[in-house]
Write a structure and sequence with these properties.
Helices cover 57% and strands 23% of the residues. The protein is built from four helices and five strands, in the order αααβββββα. The protein has helices at residues 2-35, 40-51, 55-74, 120-126; strands spanning 79-81, 85-92, 95-99, 104-108, 111-118.
Length: 127
C-alpha cells in the first residue's frame, strides 16, 4: 500500500516538474521572441531543420565557423561573407574620457576592437 502511495506521489511530482519545466521553457522562448534575440541553440535548431542534419552536426559546424572567424579576426584579417557582411579588427586611438563617479579625467589607451559591417543587401533586407 505504501509503495503504491509513493509511486503515485512520485508520478504527480514528476508531472508537476515537467509542467513547470515546459512553462519555464515556453516563457524563455517567448521572452527571446519579444526581445528580438535568438540564442545559438535556437539558431542551431533552425539550421538543423532547414538542412536535415542532426543538431549535433549543426552545432559542430556552427562552433567551427565561429572559432575560424574569431581566430582570423584576432590575427588582424578581415572575414567577408558575401550577402552578409564583414568581420574585422579596427584600431582605436588613445583618448581622454570622463570618470563620472570619481569626477576626474582618465586616459583610455589605444586598443583594437572587433567590428561587424553588414553588406548593402543585408542592410536593405532589414529596412
Amino acid at each position: 500500500m505504501f509503495q503504491e502511495f509513493f509511486r503515485l506521489i512520485h508520478s504527480v511530482k514528476s508531472a508537476i516538474f515537467a509542467t513547470r519545466k515546459a512553462r519555464n521553457q515556453e516563457h524563455i522562448t517567448q521572452r527571446h521572441i519579444k526581445s528580438g534575440k535568438m540564442t545559438k541553440k535556437e539558431l542551431v535548431k533552425k539550421i538543423s531543420a532547414a538542412t536535415g542534419y542532426d543538431q549535433k552536426a549543426a552545432m559542430k559546424a556552427m562552433n567551427i565557423a565561429i572559432s575560424e572567424i574569431r581566430s582570423c579576426v584576432e590575427q588582424g584579417e578581415s572575414v567577408y561573407l558575401r550577402g552578409f557582411g564583414t568581420f574585422e579588427l579596427k584600431h582605436r586611438a588613445a583618448k581622454r574620457a570622463r570618470d563620472i563617479k570619481g569626477r576626474r579625467t582618465i586616459v583610455v589607451p589605444e586598443h583594437e576592437v572587433p567590428t561587424f559591417r553588414p553588406c548593402a543587401d543585408f542592410k536593405e533586407a532589414v529596412r
